[in-house]
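Input sequence (141 aa), recorded before submission:
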Amino acid sequence: MKSNSGFTLIELIITMSIIVVIAAVSVPGIFAYQKKQNEERVVLSFVNLYRNYQQLALSKDSTMKIQISSTNNFINFCDSSKCETLTTSTGLFGQDIIFNIDKYGNILNQALSPISSDLTFSSDNYIITINKYGGITKKAK
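Predicted structure, token format:
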């Protein structure tokens, strides 16, 4: 008498079909989670570098330049001697802008004149607001 042990072909096909369906359902969620985590990392890095350069402007008694390039996917933080570049995901803030921080912590436009209203940057999940006195806030949408 022959002993049959193992799985039939139908059982293997059904198991594989279930695995494929579960993978197809979960993969888009994993990619969305990774995109949100990357965005959060860049936003937090922006806020931290902004605060560091604001303090640097105060301590060096000089003006710092911040350039956001949504087109080329970077943010530059520059003082008179060096620039730090933060690479962003494609079009993270949706706009290109250059502004400056003076030695008092105030925000200036490209022509080094004080701005009259808040600067607001919006990404898919966050809103960053910098007021004309240099204060920065980050809110989730």
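Checked by second reader. The chain has one domain: 9-140.
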